[in-house]
Amino acid sequence: MNSNAQSVPTVEEVHNFFSNQNILVTYRDGEAVYGTYYFLEIHYCPQGYGLYGYSEKQTVMGNRQKNNWQEFGTWKAMEQNGLVGLFYTVQSTGAQNFVPVYKLADGSMSIGQGYSIVKQGAAICQ
């Protein structure tokens, strides 16, 4: 059996996986040494999401560039063009984004190679 096999989950499976959860998403953009490392803590609440982001990058001068940000908006699990994923609308800008979600053979979810998704416990909702 291929342990890396993935399939398209149902809308209900995606909703149930993320709903009321605090999810940590980590990934790297760029090279191993000078790339940027991202850590996104996302709280998926019934009334919307809260994202608390942190990034860190080593510069060519050996310094570390660190950034923090917050983002709030709405989310929903949905089907789009044969894929199932999360549809976000950012509260402050109105920007919209669809992120496909894949179900792995062990039942966990993935948003693509190089991304880590870890449940951190219950979301902190207002």
**SSE pattern, N- to C-terminal:** EHEEEEEEEEE
Percent range for helical residues? under 10%
Number of helix segments?
1
Helix/strand/pairing class, anyone? mainly beta
Instruction: Count up the domains.
Output: 1
Q: Helices and strands in order, then pairings?
A:
Blueprint lengths: L5 E2 L3 H8 L2 E9 L6 E10 L2 E11 L5 E17 L2 E8 L5 E5 L1 E3 L4 E2 L5 E7 L4
Antiparallel strand pairs: 1-8, 2-3, 2-10, 3-4, 4-5, 5-6, 6-7, 8-9
In words, what does this structure look like?
This protein is mainly beta and 126 residues long. It has one helix and ten strands, in the order E-H-E-E-E-E-E-E-E-E-E. A seven-stranded antiparallel sheet has the order 7-6-5-4-3-2-10, covered by helices on one side. The longest helix has 8 residues. The mean pLDDT is 93.
Outline of this structure?
The protein is mostly beta strands and 126 residues long. Helices cover 6% and strands 59% of the residues.
